[in-house]
């Protein structure tokens, strides 16, 4: 008689009851990261004001200041993101019966999510006062004067009403408002000023200042060249700042993720342990 052996199926432990995301730890790490960022930014502003001087040769050069600002942004991102990610990894809940590789991934994800939440909170905190300031400045400018307002049709109307011989006795506010609208419409898209507009500006300058037509044209050309140089410098400075911010954000994400894995390892007591590198189950 042959005995029948019944093989019981292995019990599948399934997913642990503890959630894979510890939002409390993520939020704590993000808040700490934002607070450190604000503190370091305030310190950086004070440090920058102390090294910049209106006297020639008394402060750092513009290039040094730009590079120093970019490097300081990277330092801020590394410090704040590392500490925030470490706190997110150290305070998260412990996962029982989870594969070592999965634990490593979750720790990394906790640091990354903490960095992302801190970045969003920081953007909101910095954008709110900037938006209020811009809105207040626009309202004050609109209430103070309406002569320099430039609508989509103002430049065309100015061209229609342009006199052939500008008069020196014309109101200064009218001439200034017309020049503002003319320069705004010409340079807001990066286009060159039209030859007839440039000639008319030179006539207005000659009538208002008493210069000869040749000297007025030279002054107009010098001002136009200066406008282009300043606009190009502002464009390059904005592009450099954007690159520095991008580099600091990427380094911040990496540091937060790495620090969270270290914090998680210390939380579970597996930091610098061979068991953290083996495909074993945590007990």
Descriptive account of the structure:
The protein is an all-alpha fold and 283 residues long. It folds into 2 domains: 23-144 and 245-276, no CATH class; 154-232, no CATH class. The chain is 70% helix and 0% strand. It has 7 helices and no strands. The chain has helices spanning 23-51, 62-91, 100-144, 154-160, 172-187, 195-209, 213-268. α1 (23-51) crosses α3, α3 (100-144) runs antiparallel to α7 (213-268) and α6 packs across α7. The longest helix is centred in the last third of the chain and has 56 residues, at 213-268. The protein is elongated and about 90 Å long. The model is unreliable at 1-12, 137-148 and 274-283 (pLDDT under 50).
Strand and helix layout:
Layout: H1 23-51, H2 62-91, H3 100-144, H4 154-160, H5 172-187, H6 195-209, H7 213-268
Can you give me a brief rundown of this structure?
By secondary structure, the protein is mainly α.
Strand content: under 5%
Number of helices: 7
| Main sheet: strands, sense, barrel | none
Give me the Rg, rounded.
32 Å
Properties at a glance:
283 residues, mainly alpha, 2 domains, 7 helices, 70% helix, disordered N terminus, disordered C terminus
